[in-house]
Fold:
Amino acid sequence: GAGVSQSPSNKVTEKGKDVELRCDPISGHTALYWYRQSLGQGLEFLIYFQGNSAPDKSGLPSDRFSAERTGGSVSTLTIQRTQQEDSAVYLCASSPIAYNSPLHFGNGTRLTVT
Amino acid sequence: EDQVTQSPEALRLQEGESSSLNCSYTVSGLRGLFWYRQDPGKGPEFLFTLYSAGEEKEKERLKATLTKKESFLHITAPKPEDSATYLCAVLHAGNMLTFGGGTRLMVKP
Structure:
């Protein structure tokens, strides 16, 4: 079946502009995660959605970052007033149930802020 | 503070030269440890889950083991196609998943 799909695969934006990154999880997966991976770094947790529960936003680095998940499926990560330090690969992952199920990752969106 | 540390950061092997990657952790209440493989430009691909000390999992040339403080990913007779970054992630109390920094493996023919 189809895996986790992310779009766009690459995004170049000017400093100060807003960007939206999209994630289509695997059908039927109730848990959805966003991670950030900077060059040569490990994965940094951003936000986690589980079903209809309130999302865990504890990893969002600033109030310029927000995410929503519509209808328990597609998710959008929005970064407002982008800064150069936001440049990274943004990875989305989903899993069938919470926590101890392995995550299935998309191939990420590479964001470059100039 | 919960920490996951992978070593070495980079490893160069000749084809056929077996070795091990290490993932050490200091977390409260381990609930599971995951190994992933990541190729350049791709998302991490799931390899193994280990839940308790003493557990082992195998897949082709890879074998993962778990103790109370660390996990090893053993690579037997590696091939160039095994070249990738290997990530471990620890699920701990509070249902937090923390990733290590990864080990970049390069296998030369």
Notes: Chain B touches chain A at residues 31-32, 34, 36, 41-46, 49, 51, 87, 89, 91, 95-102 (CB under 8 Å). The first strand of chain B starts at residue 3 and ends at 7.
